[in-house]
Amino acid sequence: MTRRQADLLRAGALAGTLTLAACGGPAGAENGPGESPGETTRVINVQVVEVAPRPFVEDLRLTGTVEAFRDVTVSAEESGVVRELMVDKGSAVAAGQPILRIDDRVLAPQVEQARAQAALARETWERRKRLWEEDKVGSELAYLEARYGAEQAAANLAALEERLARTVVRAPIEGLVDDRMVEVGSMVSPGTPLVRVVDVDPVKVTAGVPERYATDIRAGANVRVSFDVIQGSDFEGTIRYVGAAVNPRNRTFPVELTIPNPGRAIKPEMVANVSVVRRSLEDVLVVPQEAVVRISEGYAVFVVRQEGGREVAEARPVQLGASQANQVVVTSGLQPGDRLVVVGQAQVAHGDYVRVLEDR
C-alpha cells in the first residue's frame, strides 16, 4: 500500500466517526425518560418475579425394572405320567389349589398295603403290651419288638400317604398360571418343571442408586413410580430393601420397593420411573434455573431495583443449593421480596436501565 492510499483510509475513517457523532449515537439506542434526543441510554425489556420463601422437595430420579412379587416354578415331587390338567394358562389360582394330577395307580395300592401292615402291627403291640404289663406273660424282648414294629409300620404308612398326596400337584402361592411345561401323557420325574405361578399384586421394582446417595436412601422411604407405557400412571410405594454393597461395575447399590397392582396392568420386566424423596426443605428461596447465569466466579442472578426514579438491573452473585427439574434453591445472595429477572437476563448487564413488561 502506498502512503497516499493509507492517508485516504485514515481520512475516510475520521469522516465516518464525525458523521456518527452528529447523528446522536448508534442506531437502535433508546432515549431514557427526561433525556434530550442527543443523549442515549440502553433500556432492556425484562420480565420479573418476586422471590418468596416456600417449601422445596428434592427428588432422586431412578430407572427401575418390574419383577413379580413372587415367581415360583412348581416341579414334580413324584414320578409318573400326567393324567389330568386342572387349570389353564392365565388362570388365577389360590394357594393350595390343585393344578394337575400324576398317575397314582402304583402308589395307591402300596398305601393300602402299608395301612394294613400298620393296623396289624398296632394290634400286635397292644396285645403284647397287655400281656406283658398286666399278666407278665412273654418276654421283654418280644414286648419291645412289637412296640417298635408298630412305630415302624406307622412311619412307613405316613411316608407313603405323603407320596400319594404329592401326586396331586398344588399351587404353592396365590397368583396366575403364567406357563405350563407339560401336557396330559407327559412322563415326569422328581424335579421336572410343571407350571409357573406368578404373583403380580403387588409387584416389586428394583433399581440401582448411585453410591453418592448412599446416606440419603433408607428402607421405609416413600416413593412414586410411573410408567411411560401406562398413561396417567402414578403409583405410591415403599422401599423394602436397600443393598449393603456397591456394584463395582457401575458403582450403584440396589434398592427394592413394592407397589400395588390391583388391575394387573403392570407387568414384569416393564421399565419404571422411580422418584425417591432425597430431602425436604422449608422456607427456602427457589428460582428458575434459566434465571441463573454463569460468571467467572460462579453464578449470578439479576434483580431490578429503583435508582433515581428509574429501574436498574443489579447483578447479584449467588450460592446454589439443591435442584429439581427446572428449579434451584438459592442459599445466599437473594432476599425475600427481591424482583428477580426471569426473561431478558441474558441481555442485561449490571447497571443497565430496564423496562419491566410484566410481573409474573
Question: What are the defining features of this structure?
Answer:
single chain, 360 residues, alpha+beta, conserved putative lor/sdh protein from methanococcus maripaludis s2 fold, Elongation Factor Tu (Ef-tu), domain 3, four-stranded antiparallel sheet, elongated
List the helices and strands and how they pair.
Blueprint: H1 3-22, E1 43-50, E2 53-75, E3 80-85, E4 92-93, E5 98-102, H2 107-135, H3 140-165, E6 168-170, E7 175-180, E8 187-188, E9 193-210, E10 222-226, E11 235-242, E12 252-259, E13 271-288, E14 293-295, E15 298-307, E16 310-324, E17 327-332, E18 339-343, E19 353-359
Parallel strand pairs: 1-19
Antiparallel strand pairs: 1-18, 2-9, 2-13, 3-5, 3-8, 4-7, 5-6, 7-9, 9-12, 10-11, 10-13, 11-12, 13-17, 14-15, 15-16, 15-18, 16-17
Helix pairs in contact: 2-3
Oligomer classification? single chain
Strand order of the largest sheet: 2-9-12-11-10-13
Helix percent reads 10-25%
What's the CATH H-level homologous superfamily of the domain at 60-68 and 197-281?
A: Efflux pump adaptor protein, beta barrel domain
Strand content: 35-45%
Order of helices and strands: HEEEEEHHEEEEEEEEEEEEEE
Number of strands: 19
What does this structure look like?
The chain is α+β, with helices and mostly antiparallel strands and 360 residues long. Among the domains are: 77 residues, conserved putative lor/sdh protein from methanococcus maripaludis s2 fold (Beta Barrel), CATH 2.40.420; 94 residues, Elongation Factor Tu (Ef-tu), domain 3 (Beta Barrel), CATH 2.40.30.170; 59 residues. Helix content is 21%, strand content 44%. The chain contains three helices and 19 strands. The strands form two sheets. Strands 2-9-12-11-10-13 form a six-stranded antiparallel beta barrel. Strands 6-5-3-8 form a four-stranded antiparallel sheet, with no helix packed on it. A hairpin with a 2-residue loop joins β16 and β17. α2 runs antiparallel to α3. It is elongated, with a radius of gyration of 42 Å. The N terminus is likely disordered.
